[in-house]
Amino acid sequence: MRILGISAFYHDSAAALVEDGRIVAAAQEERFTRKKHDAAFPAKAVAYCLAEAGCGMADIDHVVFYEKPFVKFERLLETYLATSPRGFRSFRTAMPVWIKEKLFQKSMLRKQLGKIGGTKSWSGSLLFTEHHLAHAASAYFPSPFPSAAVLTMDGVGEWCTTSLGHGRGNTLKMLKEIHFPHSLGLLYSAFTYYTGFKVNSGEYKLMGLAPYGQPRFVQTIMDNLIDLKEDGSFRLDQRYFDYCTGLTMTSAAFHQLFGGPPRSPESPLTQREMDLAASIQVVTEEIVSRLARFARQETGETRLCLAGGVALNCVANGKLLKQGLFKDIWIQPAAGDSGGALGAALAVWYEYLGNARSVNGDDAMAGAYLGPAYGQNEIEGRLAAMGAVYSVVGDDDLIASTVDSLIEEKAVGWMQGRMEFGPRALGGRSILGDPRSPTMQKTLNLKVKYRESFRPFAPSVRREDVAEWFDIDADSPYMLLVGDVLDSQRLRPNREDTDLFGLDRLNVARSKIPAVTHVDYSARVQTVHRDTNPRYWDLLSAFKNRTGCPVLVNTSFNVRGEPIVCTPEDAYRCFMGTEIERLVVGNCVLRKEEQPEALRHDYKERFELD
Amino acid sequence: MEMAREVWSYMGTRKKFWLLPIFVMVGVFGTLIVLTQGTAVAPFIYTLF
Fold first, then answer.
1. What percent of chain A has pLDDT over 70?
2. In Å, how far are A58, A473, A537 from A465, measured between CA atoms?
3. Which of A94, A106, A133, B14 is the most buried (most CB within 10 A)?
4. In a domain, B29, yes or no
5. Mean pLDDT over residues A67-77, rounded?
6. How confident is the model at residue A152 (pLDDT cuts 50, 70, 90)?
7. Can you tell me the distance from the alpha carbon of A306 to that of A163, in angstroms, rounded to the nearest whole number?
8. How many beta-carbon pairs under 8 angstroms link A with B?
9. Across A111-215, where does the E strand assignment appear?
10. If residue A338 lies in a helix (H) or strand (E), which one and from where to where?
């Protein structure tokens, strides 16, 4: 039995294929089309999933879409009705899209599936799940837990913005919901917009900015924007927001409350934006904490599963883990809408078809390495066709020469095995660096990634070594938990350094691994496990043997605004357009100085800034 | 036709039959917006709401 899950038509389209309950493949469309957050029907991702499973469309038993378009339309209509005539501009913008396309998603899906292949009519086998059920299913069913409380939090699906579910065996019962317009995701996005970042993509920048600020607006937010109850439920005062009726996130009242208009995108960041970021982060953590406490009480469970865009807030996740409310927390690596494709497919297998579920201690995500891989011959053929100069080395030499490059403080492009599913690069499509270097963060941000200098980098560490460097001793294979660098690894700050404010704090070396230590000593940790990524684990082991440090800088293999690389060609283009100095693809090693000068190109301007 | 059947079935499942006149009006005026793609329709709709 094969089930194809699809998410599309809003942002981050994706496809996932489940075969007899096993996740065979999952990928986001943006990786193939090279358009960041591509919302189109995921034709290429579907084609990849079919190829990975070695089947055609005719072999698919059910196709499932990750939300219910009519119920979403109902929400739009009722919102416009409740707020009319104020929402007319928004109504006039939304209606053409809905009337021309979105209301006809069923026939559109059928048509697109027909284009991929087969002659199936899909009557009765084209299904639709609710958006938050898809998120909850993506969090619970692949988790390693036999039962768990399940929390989902995002912007909005149909009506639901936050849900509490209870997973037991193969059942997932939804217990409580918070409905639009009261949304934690939209509250966070309102601050993303107000501080000059792009909604639906800049939220993680806001999170990264928070440690530079002081949370001096927390009381203002609590007193005016949100009515937060003890059980974590909340209502947002709509006078301060514009997303129901207008085409922006915040209203004039919001701007007045925080003392000015939104920051213009790309203009210099001031202490005010940093303080706003710190404040909304504190509020978010408080809401998530109260919701989790309520989930614990309601379900009696000691394990928690999380999904939805807010679950990508790894700072809040890390604090939740430290609170000890739950014995264990598992977060879906593709917690955003792309993961809805996978959740929808799993919901059909377990909930709709009633198949049994068994757990064996590991999660079912295979380290999130669910995308395409390329064999050595194919890699060589593709690189040669591009005119690349490479040498092929054995496994041991590959690791040794990569460690040499890292110790020489070179930025290394690392493309190995299957591509990751979800927004994080986890050692399959990564740029790696030496975390001990005090200049590595700046170099990677400005010369390799072309992104804002304040953005922190994450450490990869062998699971066996995590507790010696960070104050978490738990699996964090998907880089979704933040912990602090241990005191024993920290450096004592100079007196002048402690008096610094804002972005001036950036260049202070705080620990033995300054490139991955944020200004508040936090780090977004990825634990690397030998069973899911043996080659990356070997690299970390070799780096540890040479340097005593089992940690590497791991950032996604892309530049700002570009989807993470997928193919060897993507990797080579990014390598040749940036100051990455070494590229390792499979067993091929490429040195920048040996590449033909004619193949160097300007890469920076190629992608729209995110 | 299939679309009308699905809308009817959705309203039955969600017990939202009160939305029917709104669906019809949205259909009519939405079509007008799509066809005109301009602002001529705007005052017409304002008086309606």
1. 100
2. 47, 9, 11
3. A133
4. yes
5. 93
6. very high
7. 10
8. 45
9. 126-128, 147-153, 160-168, 171-179
10. helix A338-347
Using DSSP's 3-state secondary structure scheme, residue A565 falls into: coil
Q: Does B25 touch chain A (CB under 8 A)?
A: no
Tell me the C-alpha to C-alpha distance, in Å, between residue A25 and each of A41, A514, A573, A586.
Answer: 17, 36, 25, 20
Residues of A within 8 A of B24 (CB-CB) are none
Contact criterion met (CB below 8 Å) for A430 and A495 = no
| A234 token code pair | 């909340």
- The C-alpha atoms of residue A384 and residue A378 are separated, in whole angstroms, by 10
Of B22, B30, B46, the CB nearest to A99: B30
> Quick one: pLDDT at residue A278?
98
At A246 the pLDDT is: 87
> B1-49, pLDDT tens digit by residue?
788 888 889 999 999 999 888 878 877 877 777 676 654 444 443 333 3
Q: Which of B30, B34, B45 sits opposite A88 (nearest CB)?
A: B45
Maximal C-alpha separation, chain B? 37
- Beta strand pairing call for A481-484 and A126-128: unpaired
DSSP state of A307: E
* B31–chain A Cβ distance below 8 A for any pair: yes
State whether residue A7 is helix, strand or coil: strand
Residues A369 and A417 sit within 8 Å (Cβ to Cβ) = yes
Which residue type, as a one-letter code, is found at position A228? L
Domain ranges of chain A: 376-606
Domain assignment present for residue B34? The answer is: yes
With CA atoms as reference, the chain B residue closest to A73 would be B23
- The answer to whether position B46 is within a domain reads yes
- Residues with Cβ within 8 Å of A532's Cβ and at least 6 positions away in sequence, in order, are A366, A367, A369, A477
Question: A84 to chain B, minimum CA–CA distance in Å?
Answer: 7
Using a CB-CB cut-off of 8 Å, the residues of chain A touching B29 are 95
DSSP A43: H
Minimum distance, in Å, between the CA of residue B13 and any CA atom of chain A: 11
Q: Distance (Å, rounded) from C-alpha A333 to C-alpha A557? A: 17
* Structural domain contains residue B35: yes
- Host domain of residue B26: 20-49
Residue in chain B lying closest to A123 (CA): B2
The domain made up of A376-606 has a fold known as DHBP synthase (3.90.870)
Contacts of A74 in chain B (CB under 8 A): 14, 16, 19
Instruction: State the catalytic residues of A.
Output: 11
Of A74, A88, A100, the CB nearest to B46: A88
The per-residue pLDDT for B44 is 42
Domain count of the fold of chain B? 1
B40 touching chain A per CB within 8 A? no
pTM of the entire predicted model:
0.94
Interchain CB distance below 8 Å, A99 and B6? no
Question: Which residues of chain B make contact with A67, given a CB cutoff of 8 A?
Answer: none
Report the residue from B16, B34, B45 with minimal CB separation from A74: B16
Is the CB of A106 less than 8 angstroms away from the CB of B7? no
Mean of the per-residue pLDDT values of chain A: 95
Residue with tokens 């939804």: A174
